[in-house]
């Protein structure tokens, strides 16, 4: 089980701070996540902490609206403009795909209840 420690900005695995885990336990957690198990204890802790932070972010619900990425950006830079436009388009496509999937799931559930 994964938890954020209240007293420190560190993660807990199995009730222990990851920095307090044995190297063997760190390697097991990394292997479970398909990550490399080589390196010093400090490297293992850093790798696991980064992965746990990523998992935490991915577990958060996606926002309904992408923040305005152009706000405060150096819009004179053509590369930045293109990048931000691509990110906006990608977000819109993902949002539409999610909406369609949710609609299909609702239809499937309503059809399943009707039979």
Explain what the structure shows.
This protein has 115 residues and is mostly helical. It folds into 2 domains: 2-59, no CATH class; 63-115. It contains 3 helices and 3 strands. It has helices at residues 23-32, 41-59, 78-114, and strands at 2-4, 11-13, 16-17. Strands 1-2-3 form a 3-stranded antiparallel beta sheet, with helices on one face. A hairpin with a 6-residue loop joins strand 1 (2-4) and strand 2. Helix 1 (23-32) runs parallel beside helix 2 (41-59). The longest helix has 37 residues, at 78-114. The radius of gyration is 21 Å and the shape is flat. The relative contact order is 0.08.
Termini gap: 39 Å
* Helicity range: 55-70%
**Multimerization status:** single chain
Compressed to H and E, one letter per element, the order equals EEEHHH
> Mean of residue pLDDT?
79
Strand content: 5-15%
Q: Decide which structural class fits the backbone.
A: mainly alpha
Number of strands: 3
| Spatial strand sequence of the major β-sheet | 1-2-3
Overall 3D shape: flat
Overview in brief:
This protein is mostly helical.
Which structural traits does this protein have?
115 residues, mainly alpha, 2 domains, 3 helices, 3 strands, flat, SAP_dom, SAP domain-containing protein, EJC-associated_protein, SAP_dom_sf, RNA binding
